[in-house]
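Example record for the data management plan.
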Amino acid sequence: TYYRDLRLYYQDLLASRQRLDRIIGAFATGRFDQELNGQAMQAEPRLDKATRLAAAQLQENWKAFNRTLQAKLGEDTEEPRLEWAAEWVLEHNRQLEKATTHLLHTLERGVDERTQGAHLFGRLALVVSLVAAALILAWFFVRVLHPLEAAAKGFDRAATGDFSSLITVSRQDEIGRMIHAFNQLSARLEALLALITRLQETRTLDETLETLANTLPGLVPLDWVGILMQGPDGRVRLEQAFADGRPEAIAQQAFDLDGTLLQECLRTNTPLHIADVRETSSLDNRYKFLAFLQAHGRQEAVFMPVSGNDSITGVVVFASRHPNTYRPQHLELLYNLSHLFSVSFGRTVTLVESARLATIGQFASGIVHEIRTPLATINLALEHFLGLRDLTDSGRRRAELASREVGRLSRLLDDILLYAKPMQLNLEQYTLFGLFSELQDTPLLEHTPVQIAQDELPKLPPVQIDRDRIKQVMLNLLGTAVDANQDDPRGVHVNGYSGEPEGTVTLEILNGGEPLGHEQLERVFEPFYTSKNSGTGLGLPIVKRIVRAHGGKVSITSSPEDGTRVRVLLPIAAAPPG
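Corresponding structural encoding:
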């Protein structure tokens, strides 16, 4: 048993010596393998210089100690001299223990120093992070928040209507581009406001064109603007043009509309872009106006319809002598402004037309009064001749013909005076059914089969009308319908309905007979236009003028299947308060 325990102790001693060799060697070389520490290390430990020196000193001491220890044990592994070895260990282990303690203290100092370094690094990293964050915040304020605040103030000023102040652009990034876009928007809004203001102040076509020629180039690149107005003959005339902001000395020219792009613009009531004037004008010999623009050096143009009163009356033309001038954004802006231009020109046309009609009305009223006196004298003379007993049959026929012509001329003078003089209305609440009830006793309805919707008219709400004026409208329309119907079995029908559109009453008169052609429908409300030999051409224009004075509308449609239909739209009378 003794020898067995001795061998086990010896083997354990050998294993401990070997393990100490590996441990001390690992510290001395700085290499720590998995077999030594029992697990894989994420990174090799890095020992400082003092620790490596202490480990080397411990390794030298251990080697010397281990050599002597081996000598004490002897070479006989079966019966080693353990007692001698034990005595050697007890007597000489202090130097080895001292070297080991020195290594441990050196390791502790290294760990403490590294810990302090790590703490210092952490504090430095925290300070650097805070400084970096402060610098980033300062940069963000200077480069982002401050420009955004300036942009916000600019938007606030623009929201209140101040478009004159601009924001300074000092950068080329996204915010700089946004501020630049805002400055462009503000400048355009200011130009638009100036344009709208000046357009509202214009009173003539020349003033309106001059305003566009001098103001619009700040928004859209153009160097030529002109206005073409539609005349009674269906052609359009170049009334005035401005080139480079100055009136252009051109002779007034007329252009046919049939088959042209001008007609297309008027028909669709939408703007039309002509990208290449030269090439487009060569496509059709009817494009005379495009040839005119090309002859005057214009290479690109935009046609824009103009509304006056209730119909399209002309086209305003924007053109440039340079090709590819109008970019998509320019065309979009022009299209968005088309309604403004149409209303402005339409208002100007209406003002000009009203002034012209007022002048004509004053002139016509004076002429009518001047003609009536000699006409009455002529009529008295004809009545005298017709009363003579010895008047020949031939002379009597001529006198009767002259008397009828005097009567027609007198009616024409009455119509001219009615159409020319200012319209004065005596408004009262009245129903259309009551109005037609009063018309039943007139010769027109007594001897003519006019079918009135007795079930529908009584249901119509009252309207605010001048009863005598509207009665004149109904008699005029019914007389025209009866004359047009002739012997057509469909006859003349009168109906009415309300609420289409809301707040209105619509009276409808339908007759058979020969339908009206396209040209007749376009010109039927023109003064002095008539297809009847004995007509004055003022009946329907007077109807339209009376209806419009009441705030209503009148329209005519015609087809072989449905006949001719006249619609008179009048506003419903307002309900009394309370």
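Summary line stored alongside the record: The chain has a mean pLDDT of 79.
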